[in-house]
Amino acid sequence: MRIVKGLILLALAFASSAFILSEGRVTPLRNVATFWCVAIEGRPNLKNDIDNLCRSGAVDCGPIQPGGNCFQPNTDDFHASYLFNAYYQAHKTCNFNGDSILEQNQDLSTPTCKFVR
After folding, report:
1. pLDDT band for position 70 (cuts 50, 70, 90)
2. Which of 5, 86, 87, 105 has the fewest other C-beta atoms within 10 Å?
3. Is the Transcription keyword given for this protein (predicted)?
4. Neighbours of 102 (CB within 10 A)
């Protein structure tokens, strides 16, 4: 914490977000790096990864089911990326047997499917 010209500025880092507290107002900082855990395209085990995550109950698989907001595009790459990222944002680990990678500023959200930040 530091005092600048009578204002208290406080930067908080939590869940890949940063904020400034100034004069009783909290303002998000712009251009702060955000990370997403995404599938490495074309990996042969993505379907198994999807099945394992859904079976474990560690993430909500409803959005990638038919009729869900994240069903389209209907590819293993997209569905795995959605689930990997949801797991990463909750548990801060992106280790799915070599099928995933942590990317900076790689938001794969679509107009109907928002990836968790």
Report:
1. very high
2. 5
3. no
4. 15
Crossing angle (nearest 10°) for helices 46-56 and 76-91:
50
* pLDDT tier at 84, thresholds 50, 70, 90: very high
Minimum mean pLDDT range among 12-21, 38-47, 79-88: 12-21
* Dist. CA 78–CA 39, nearest whole Å: 8
The pLDDT value recorded for residue 62 is 98
Longest Cα–Cα distance in the chain: 58
